[in-house]
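User: For my dataset I need records formatted as: sequence, then C-alpha cells, nothing else. Please produce one.
Assistant:
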Amino acid sequence: MDQKKIGMIIGSLREKSYSRKIAQLLITLAPATLQTEIIEIGQLGLYNPDLENNLPAEWQSFRARIKSCTGIIFVTPEYNRSVPGLLKNAIDIASRPVTENAWKGKPAAIISISQGAMGGFGANHHLRQCLVFLDVPAMLQPEAYIGKVNTLFDENGDFSNEDTRKFLNSFMKAFEIWISRFNPYKQ
C-alpha cells in the first residue's frame, strides 16, 4: 500500500493542550493510506529575513520536513479571533524565500478548537486566508470547528465524546479523498 506522508502542525505549545490531544486522536483515526506525524514548531524562533543568508538549523529542518509531506493538517486553538503567533511564525518560516515556498501546492485541512461555542471560527478563517496566498488548497468540507473542547475529555484526560470521534473519523476519511485529488507541484 502506498502511504502518503501527512504533517500535522499544532498551533499550541502546551504539552497537554486540547489541540495536541485532538491531533493525537486524529493520528489514531487516520486511514491506513496516511502516514501522519506531528511536526513540532515551538523550537523555530522568530522569523527574521536577515537570517536567510545564515539559516538556523531548525528552519532548514522544518522547511525540509514540510517539503517532504504530501499534505498538511493544522490543528489550532484560537487566540484573539486569529491563529496563535507561533503558528503564523511557522507559516512564515516555511514560506520564505517566496521562490522556495515549502507549502506550495500541498493540500491541507484545518481543525480549529476553542472552549467557547464557536470552535475557533476566527482562527480557522484567518488561517485559510494565509493558505490562499501560499497556494495551499484547503479542504472545503467538512469544516471542523470543535467548540467546548474542554468537555470532550474524561477526568483522566482521555477523549470521551463518541459523536465528535465519529465526526473526526469522517474528517480524516474526507481528507484522504481530498489529497488524492492533488499532485504536489514539482519544486
